[in-house]
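Action item from last week, closing it out:
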Amino acid sequence: MSEPGTEGLELFHLGRDLGEKENQAASEPDRVASLQAAFAAWDQGNVPAIFPGFRRYIKEREAFHQAVKAGESSRGEP
């Protein structure tokens, strides 16, 4: 079970886990919170995206490509 607020987050110790197989986010919630706070502080100084829907566009594009790929594999195509 994950720690509240860490669902969907990933934290790896690259010195011990270069292959990123052991997600430490649930066992290190204080470190996750600290990194999130540092990111939020850094992000405050950034300029808003010129194309604000870009992240949504990327997700929709990935979903489309996955659907196309699934359709190809169901027809036996590579």
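Closing note: The chain has a mean pLDDT of 84.
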